[in-house]
Every structure is written in structure tokens, then in C-alpha cells.
Amino acid sequence: MARVRLEHVTKRYDDQGDVVTAVDDMNLDIDHGEFICFVGPSGCGKSTTMETIAGLTIPTEGEIYIGDREVTNLPPKDRGIAMVFQNIALFPHMDVYDNISFGLRLRDYPQDEIDRRVERAADIVQLEGMLNRMPEEMSGGQRQRVAIARAIVREPDVFLMDEPLANLDAKLKVHMRTELQRLHKELDTTIIYVTHDQEEAMTLSDRIAVLDSGQLQQIDPPLTCYNEPDNLFVAGFIGSPSMNFVEGTVTETSLETPNFSLEFNPSSIEGIGVGDSVTLGIRPEDIYPGELKSEVPDPSGMITATTDILEPMGDEIFAYLLLGDGETSMSQELATNDQLLMSIDPDSDLEEDDEIGVVIDRRNVHLFDSATGDAIVHDLIPYEAEGTASSSEVESDD
Amino acid sequence: MATPTDTQEQSSDGPLQRWTQSAIQDPEKVYRALFYAAMVFFLVTTLFPFYWLIVLAVTPEGNLLSGSFLPTVNLFGVSGTFPLPVPKGFNPGAFVTVFEQVPFHLYMLNSFALAVTTTVIVLFVASLAGYVFGRLRFPGRALLMLGILAISYFPPAAFVIPLFQAFAGNAPITVPFTSIPLFTPPRMLNTPGSMVLPFSALFMPLSIFILTTFYGQIPDGLEDAARVEGTTRLGALFRVIMPLSAPGVATAAVLTFIAVYNEYFFSSIMATSPEAAKWSPIVGGILSYQTQYTTQFNLMAAASIVGVLPVVILVIVAQERIVSGLTSGALKE
């Protein structure tokens, strides 16, 4: 059983006198057979965290356990891990067979055992008949499969994958993604996967660990991260296009933002008080054109807006909406408060510079504490009974 | 477009002027001419001494000192001096005599053994140093590198007297400026140890620089991959980094080998007399054809040719790698 545990793992670098904390007090508990994605922007510490698990970096503080063993200071070769690297890292002077069998030969496996295992690994990643090729004679996808075969041939307790698909083209990436999922099903091994691509993380993993500036922000199944983000960072990072954020102040009956207000009952929600500054988070798909108001379970009042730019994606259209007087589009920096991104039906006849009314699904908005960024609530309960709620007008603030 | 008048004007000029004209039109021509001039210069300066050795070697001993090596030729009534030296007679037996008079093969074996041992030691130690300097970051790295560079600039003669005293093993080594004895070294004169040790130290810096550059260019990912797959850092160095730096390793090896193979200064001092049994090298052997009263130039020339053959073979075999090693090391970093 290869459960991976990180306890208070911290890694600090000394960068010419400045201490840089790459990983800050990381605590993780990864179950056997789990597929975990570390996701975050560049420099968030996800690769460093993985390197500490691999043993390529020794943490400044904290302990790492793989299975029942403490491995914090063990060299990589004694940890029972295998790793797939972002730059693939096949040994250029060895052919495919030698690359795959490298680890087995180092461990003095008998020749027939090596042959059997290499054949099986090549079979799993569909590399039969290519064992005598040199890495330079192969395509990117084939090389990546060799790297994966090299990892699985040793039957490790834990797989570490550091952005293994980052250097592949978009089509191959999607194909390899499904192959990785198939592989995970087949091998039943713990997989830790580092990526900066939240879409990869969403589709692959059992749980996503969202990291930012060396700290763990949230570790939850993908849909939980999507629907109930713990804080502003997770909310903004997970989901594409990302969530709209609007700053506002809580009053007794509503949330007042510069351009509109959203009615709700603050007393029904814990951890919020009148006068608090909060950030409202709305996903693009939770904003609807005014004419669909009747279909939205708990719609907000009508918000007037002007369409700025339309981005047709085929299956949907992303519409950038300007709130307020609509003049802000001329200014250099558009305040996020004045802009909303809405996802609409592809056969909508909306055009640029149209003035429209939109409603927000109040059951799917998030409130965050503006000061700390922590999530307060993930849906607003209607202030009044259904009938009155729908008739209440929400004025747009000019 | 050349009109008839143009052609006439050009043809009235001398050939040099015509060539200059066309060279102005096509500067490539000048570069090509310069290239050939430089090539001929280098070929003559490097190959002529070798040719001169052959001429000397095949000339019978009795003819060496009489007459000129530049014969007078009479061609269609015009007599003049032939511009190249030619052998006066033909005596290929000199190539056999060299081994009969002096055990020259033993001297060659000495040089070869010293060169191989030194090369192995230098490659091993310089690989460790190159790994550390090229791949690890630690405080004082630049300073240490500078130290190695500084020491490599010391003239070898500066080390000869203290080393000779140490290898003689007569008196204990003392703390500098005092008479406090530290230890008495074993006597190492006339053994390979007294030559291999200083050679290794003297030729190490160059190899360290070459290997540092090469090892520094191997991507970190490959070393990480090797370590995850089951090697130690050292294992990764010798199994992955070194094979991938083959041009650099070959360059360092060949340069060290040739330098030691040709070395005379240290070995002539550490071998107290030019005898093969005292590990005297090739140059010691060549000088043995010279006695107090006679100098057998033909045998010395023949021995020089025989002695240089292993290096020629080595360079021909390894030249592609050396060239790519020297240039690719120079291009990056």
C-alpha cells in the first residue's frame, strides 16, 4: 500500500541573501491508488513539492512518508517511485529497450525477467516493434510513451508525473490524457501529477491540490473545487474562462456593488455582517440573458449592460459585458467591477454594442471575504418568498 | 554585359590587373585564394619537418655529413639547385637499427604506459571536478575555479625542485619555514609514480575546464531521470552524463595523452638516467643515439618517426570527435 504523506514540508532557498520559500508548510495525505493533480500557476511550488517526494530536493523542514516508511532523506533510487519528466528525459545514447530497462538492469534483475517486463510495458503503452529505435527517431508522443513505459516497468509504488504532456501538441495531449486515465485504471498505483493546466487537472484526477505561492489552497475532488472553491484563488484558477469577481458591500437586505445590487438576507448566512466588504464571484455560465429569467430558479433582478466583445467558440459564445455607463471600454484598464463575462447560447442573435439586461442565478454565486479571500458562502438564499423576489427591481448604478 | 570595347580594354591590362578586376566583382574569389594560401602555409610548416625526418632517416649514416641534401639538377642544359632536400642514398635499415642499438620499444612502452595511466587518472578526477563545477551551485565555486586556473598558469619548472626532493625520499617533509618534520615520503625516483603524479596535476586543469563545460550542458532532467531510475549521483555521472559528453571526454583524453606522451622535462629529471628500466620516455630513448663523440642523426630521425606513429594513429581515429569537442565546447556557454 503506497499512501503518500507530507507533514509540514517546507523548502526554502537562499537566493543571494534573500530567503525564498518555495513550499510553505505543506500537509498532504494521498491514498493508495489515488490520482492527485498538483495544479497552480508557475512558481507556485508544485514542482518543488513533487521533487521533495521524488527525493531530488531535500526539504528544509518536515517529513515525507511513502507507505509506512519515512523517506525524507532517502536518495530517489530507494523510494520506490518512478517519474515522468516534462522534458521527457530519455537517455539519448540508448535505444528504447535500453531506456526502458535501465532501472531494471541497475537493480540486477535476471535477463528473462527484464525481457518479460519490458515487453509487457511496451505492450501497455503500444510500443511493440519499436524497441530498437533510438529516441531521436521517434515522434514526441512516442517518446512520451517510452518515458511512461520506463516508469511502469519497475512497478513502482508511486508514479510522479511532472507536466508530462506540456510539450505535446493539443491533439496529442487530449489523446495521451485518455491513455493516462486508462493506464491508471489498469495499474492501480498512486499517481501524483503536476500541471499548470486546470483542464488537465479537472479531467484526470480523483482529487486536485491547488497550490499558490508555496501553500496548499485546497485539496478536493475536481467538482468540489469547481463548485465550492475555498478561496478567491481557487475560484479564479479553476474553471475556464475564469470566474467573474465583483467587489461589494453588504447592507441589511442586499449586496451593493458599484453597478448593481443583489438582494439576499445577510442574517441567514453565518460569518457575514452588515457593512462587510465582500467579493462576489459569478461563473460565466451562471449569468443569463434577461429573456431567460423565467427559467432561472432564483434569478437576481435585471442588470443592464452593454455587450463589448463577443467570442464565438462554436458550442457557446463568450460575451464580455460592460456594466455602468458603457464608456469604460475606452479607458486603458477596465476595472473588473465594471466587466462581466457571460457564456451564452451559440444561436443567440446578440451583437456587439447591444444594450441588454442580464440576470444572475443566485443559487450559484459565491461570496468571498475581500480582506482574506476566504469563501463565505456558495449560494445566496433568496431574501423573500419566490414571488416577491422576482418582482424586486435591481437598479443599475450609473 | 561586356561590349567589344570592354573586352579590348580588359585584355590590354596585365593578368594581375584582370584578376583584380574580377576579384572586385566576385569577392568570394579572394577569400578562396586566401584560404588556399593559409592552407599551403600550414601544410608546409607542419609537414615539412616530417618530410625532413624521413629524408634524414633513410640517408645512410656515412653520407649524412658529406655533401648537400639539396642536389644540383641539370635540366635541358640549365643547372640549378633542387629546392627540396632529397635523401643521399637509401637505407631503410635504420628503422630496424633503432631497435637493435637501443631498446627503443621499451622507451615507447614507458611513454605509452605513463600516458595511459595519466589519462585515466586525469579523466576520473577531472570528471568528478567537472561534475561539481558544471552542475552544482555552491558558495566559493568561482573562487575555486579561479584557483585552478591560477595554478595551471604556474610554469612546471617551479615544481621540479620540491618534487624532486620529495620523490627522492631522503629527508622528511617539514612544515614550511620550520624544521618540524611531517613525514618521510617513499623513494619514487625512477618509478612511474614520480612522473604520473606531477603529470596528472599539471594536465588536470585543462581537462577540468573542458569537462566542466560539457557536463554543465547536460540537461538536469537526464540526471534526475537516472537518479530516479536507480543510480546515485556518481552513477548518473558515469552512466549518463559522461557517455553523453563523449566528444568532450575524447578531447580531454587525447590532449592529455599527447601531452604526456611527448613530455620530456619532468621525466628526464625524475628518471635519473635515460635508461628504459628507469622509466625514461621516448625522448630519453632518442637522445641515447647520441654519445659523447657521435650523433647518429639518421637513427634519431628514424626513432622520432616510429615514436610519433601511435599519436598519429590516435589523432586520425579520434579527430572527428576532437574537432567537434573543441568547437561545441567553445560555442556554448
From TrEMBL, chain A:
<dbReference type="InterPro" id="IPR040582">
    <property type="entry name" value="OB_MalK-like"/>
</dbReference>
<dbReference type="InterPro" id="IPR012340">
    <property type="entry name" value="NA-bd_OB-fold"/>
</dbReference>
<keyword id="KW-0813">Transport</keyword>
<dbReference type="GO" id="GO:0005524">
    <property type="term" value="F:ATP binding"/>
</dbReference>
<dbReference type="GO" id="GO:0016887">
    <property type="term" value="F:ATP hydrolysis activity"/>
</dbReference>
<dbReference type="InterPro" id="IPR027417">
    <property type="entry name" value="P-loop_NTPase"/>
</dbReference>
<dbReference type="Pfam" id="PF17912">
    <property type="entry name" value="OB_MalK"/>
</dbReference>
<dbReference type="InterPro" id="IPR017871">
    <property type="entry name" value="ABC_transporter-like_CS"/>
</dbReference>
<dbReference type="GO" id="GO:0055052">
    <property type="term" value="C:ATP-binding cassette (ABC) transporter complex, substrate-binding subunit-containing"/>
</dbReference>
<dbReference type="InterPro" id="IPR003439">
    <property type="entry name" value="ABC_transporter-like_ATP-bd"/>
</dbReference>
<dbReference type="InterPro" id="IPR015855">
    <property type="entry name" value="ABC_transpr_MalK-like"/>
</dbReference>
<dbReference type="Pfam" id="PF00005">
    <property type="entry name" value="ABC_tran"/>
</dbReference>
<dbReference type="GO" id="GO:0140359">
    <property type="term" value="F:ABC-type transporter activity"/>
</dbReference>
<comment type="function">
    <text>Part of the ABC transporter complex XacGHIJK involved in the uptake of xylose and arabinose. Responsible for energy coupling to the transport system.</text>
</comment>
<dbReference type="GO" id="GO:0008643">
    <property type="term" value="P:carbohydrate transport"/>
</dbReference>
<comment type="similarity">
    <text>Belongs to the ABC transporter superfamily. Carbohydrate uptake transporter-1 (CUT1) (TC 3.A.1.1) family.</text>
</comment>
<feature type="domain" description="ABC transporter">
    <location>
        <begin position="4"/>
        <end position="238"/>
    </location>
</feature>
<dbReference type="InterPro" id="IPR003593">
    <property type="entry name" value="AAA+_ATPase"/>
</dbReference>
<keyword id="KW-0547">Nucleotide-binding</keyword>
<keyword id="KW-0067">ATP-binding</keyword>
<comment type="subunit">
    <text>The complex is composed of two ATP-binding proteins (XacJ and XacK), two transmembrane proteins (XacH and XacI) and a solute-binding protein (XacG).</text>
</comment>
<protein>
    <recommendedName>
        <fullName>ABC-type D-xylose/L-arabinose transporter</fullName>
        <ecNumber>7.5.2.13</ecNumber>
    </recommendedName>
</protein>
Automatic annotation (TrEMBL), chain B:
<dbReference type="Pfam" id="PF00528">
    <property type="entry name" value="BPD_transp_1"/>
</dbReference>
<keyword id="KW-0812">Transmembrane</keyword>
<feature type="transmembrane region" description="Helical">
    <location>
        <begin position="236"/>
        <end position="261"/>
    </location>
</feature>
<keyword id="KW-0813">Transport</keyword>
<dbReference type="GO" id="GO:0005886">
    <property type="term" value="C:plasma membrane"/>
</dbReference>
<feature type="transmembrane region" description="Helical">
    <location>
        <begin position="195"/>
        <end position="215"/>
    </location>
</feature>
<protein>
    <submittedName>
        <fullName>Putative sugar ABC transporter permease</fullName>
    </submittedName>
</protein>
<keyword id="KW-0472">Membrane</keyword>
<feature type="transmembrane region" description="Helical">
    <location>
        <begin position="297"/>
        <end position="318"/>
    </location>
</feature>
<keyword id="KW-1133">Transmembrane helix</keyword>
<feature type="transmembrane region" description="Helical">
    <location>
        <begin position="104"/>
        <end position="131"/>
    </location>
</feature>
<dbReference type="InterPro" id="IPR000515">
    <property type="entry name" value="MetI-like"/>
</dbReference>
<comment type="similarity">
    <text>Belongs to the binding-protein-dependent transport system permease family.</text>
</comment>
<feature type="transmembrane region" description="Helical">
    <location>
        <begin position="143"/>
        <end position="168"/>
    </location>
</feature>
<dbReference type="InterPro" id="IPR050901">
    <property type="entry name" value="BP-dep_ABC_trans_perm"/>
</dbReference>
<feature type="transmembrane region" description="Helical">
    <location>
        <begin position="33"/>
        <end position="57"/>
    </location>
</feature>
<keyword id="KW-1003">Cell membrane</keyword>
<dbReference type="GO" id="GO:0055085">
    <property type="term" value="P:transmembrane transport"/>
</dbReference>
<dbReference type="InterPro" id="IPR035906">
    <property type="entry name" value="MetI-like_sf"/>
</dbReference>
<feature type="domain" description="ABC transmembrane type-1">
    <location>
        <begin position="108"/>
        <end position="318"/>
    </location>
</feature>
